[in-house]
Amino acid sequence: MSDASSEGRAARQAPPPVLAARGLSFTHCGAPAPLFEDLSLRIGSGEFLGVLGPNGSGKSTLLRLLCGILSPDRGEVLLGDRPLGDFRPRERARLVGIVLQEARVLFNFTVLEVVLMGRAPYLGIWGMERAADFAAAREALRIADLQGMEERHLHELSSGERQRAMIARALAQEPRVLLLDEPTAFLDLRHSLEIYEILDRLNRGHGLTVVAVSHDLNLAARHASRLVLLDRGRLAADGPPSAVLTPGTIRRVYETEADVTLDPATGAPHVIPRAPCRDSSPTAC
Amino acid sequence: MPPLSARRLSLTLLLLAAVLVLTLGLCSSFGSSGYTLLDLLGAGPGGADGEPGGGAALAATMILRLRLPRLLMASIAGAALASTGAVFQAILRNPLADPYILGISGGAALGAFAATAAGLTALLPLLPVRAVAAFLGAALTVALIVALSSVRGRLASYPMLLVGVVTNTVYLAVILFIQTLVEMSRLRGLQLWMVGSIPTESYSTLAPLGALVLAGVAAMVLLGRDLNLMCAGEEAARSLGASVGRARIAAIILASLVTAAVVSVAGPIGFVGLIVPHAARLLFGPDHRLLVPASALCGAIFLSVADTAARTALAPTEIPVGVITALLGGPFFLWLYRSQRGSSYFE
């Protein structure tokens, strides 16, 4: 994506951005150096974007900046054509939903009560949930395959079910963009696949824009239509999975020697890690 | 338990209000003099002197001038401490948080102690010096907590608890230091106040105090939806549209004002703010739009009963109500902790 003309062509072909980061700079409190400096990223409407990168590369921070939980030191995030900072918090929450890694809620809330929290942006100060709010919450539970679990306490669910409840809460917001921070962390193979199947359905069936941070390169490559690879706060690669997941980029960013084959079922790249680079220079491993 | 609806909210609060009225009626019939509500109505067997039906005037004095004001004071204090406990537990995301543990009650105690030891109460006998000093102590503690727990302009929950625990310890040390310096006669009355005791106040004192607590609880109820979201974590609450910083500061100021007003009169009564919200949560669910007012009503009922037990169990000797609340509250909390261990209730 270094060639300006090809970048221009790609921008003309890409769907209109629903979310865009423009010249973002951000330094964590107490950190000696900025994490992001002049980072820009466009996320098209209806895209399924996978955000990859090693630990500390800024994936989770980027997600928090994109949904307004954190504010950039410089630059701005645009939601549609308006800066995110111009939205009232409740208005913003009706457009952008995020599923964080924290899947616990203090005290004895039931699954339905937790999912109904996603309707908070639609309620007034005196507001109690109405029939439409219950309908939205139940529809979100259905999409997340949690029917029949409404009355159970959240802490009674398995990790996979709890993660799906968090997705259902975000879906109850009826957002245009769904951001997920490592939605399959701590989940086994089956539950990880279930989560990505739900995200696929939401993206293809409902046209929802999905941005998922992941450490699982193969799952992300199989389900996302586009990947961005972050390396210490910089965009190391951005494009279709086959262009981003190459032995060279993996060596450079993850400092790991890897083979990349093609998944015969989906045609997506499949990464087989071989060994960490022993030399301090990743190009020499 | 089904999710909260307007119907469940109003029915629960009406039921609790009815139980409170009944409790006040029953508790006002207990006392060492033996007069009951029936005597007040002229239908009872009489008081300690046993004069049939003739004790109405004495019963009126006993019940309306002594027992009822004290019961109302207990109700106001219980409502204030329990509702603020529910609010503190949510905004700090900590089931241990209550005005007592955060040092707000301790700040009020130190204020009252210092003012009395300095002789200000004797110097200005017509002014409510002790109450004002207690209020200032609580308010200064809140200011200290807010100042020391702010990180980049945001209040952080964990430091608040640390600051609360440390200030509580320092306050206790200062109070003990004052006790060693000042002759005991000057501190008369404060010993009982220090462990928490319900005084018999005049209706003219109760009315503004009750109005303040009522207004404070009503304002905290309006924060109920944001308090629910904060139970899911600060970032989740922000992503769901809550103005976390603003809601938290509003909740802290409201809860501290209400606590300080009550502690300045009744002393630092422990455990009410800790256990009543937990009991209410088990009975009515964790939704703060109901939990805050339900905790207030349950706190009023609980402290009315506890204070009645305090003044009648060993009559004519009176047990400080703080002793009763601690003896009931401690085992309840330990039972709750044991029964909820392994769930996310205490995580």
The oligomerization state is heterodimer
Low-pLDDT runs of 5+ residues of chain A are 1-8
Secondary structure class of chain B reads mainly alpha
Annotation, overall tally of beta strands of chain A: 12
- Sheet-strand content of chain B, in percent, reads under 5%
Order of H and E elements of chain A: HEEEHEEHEHHHEHEHEEHHEE
Strand content of chain A: 25-35%
Shape of chain B: globular
Largest interface: A-B, 45 and 37 residues
Q: Report the mean per-residue pLDDT of chain B as an integer.
A: 83
Question: Which structural class should the secondary elements of chain A be placed in?
Answer: alpha/beta
Q: What strand order characterises the main sheet of chain A?
A: 6-7-8-3-9-10
Total number of strands of chain B = 2
Radius of gyration of chain A: 19 Å
Strand order of the largest sheet of chain B: 1-2
Count every helix of chain B, treating DSSP H or I runs of 4 or more residues as helices.
Answer: 15
- Spans of chain B of at least 5 consecutive residues whose pLDDT stays below 50 are none
The largest sheet of chain B is: 2 strands, antiparallel
- The mean pLDDT of chain A is 87
Largest beta-sheet characterization of chain A: 6 strands, mixed
What descriptors fit this protein?
heterodimer; A: 285 residues; alpha/beta; six-stranded mixed beta sheet; B: 347 residues; mainly alpha; 70% helix
Task: Give an overview of the whole structure.
The complex is a heterodimer of chains A (285) and B (347). Chain A is globular. Chain A is α/β, with parallel strands linked by helices and 285 residues long. Chain A starts with a helix and ends in a 9-residue tail after the last strand. Chain A has helices at 4-13, 59-67, 89-93, 111-116, 131-143, 159-172, 189-206, 217-223, 241-244, 247-254, and strands spanning 17-26, 36-44, 48-52, 74-79, 82-83, 96-99, 177-181, 209-213, 226-231, 234-239, 256-262, 269-276. Chain B is an all-alpha fold. Chain B is 70% helix and 1% strand. Chain B has 15 helices and two strands. In chain B, strands 1-2 form a two-stranded antiparallel sheet. In chain B, a hairpin with a 2-residue loop joins strand 1 (150-151) and strand 2. In chain B, helix 4 runs parallel beside helix 7. Chain B is globular, with a radius of gyration of 21 Å. The two termini of chain B are 22 Å apart. The relative contact order of chain B is 0.16. At the A-B interface, helix 3, strand 6 and helix 4 of A face helix 10 and helix 11 of B.
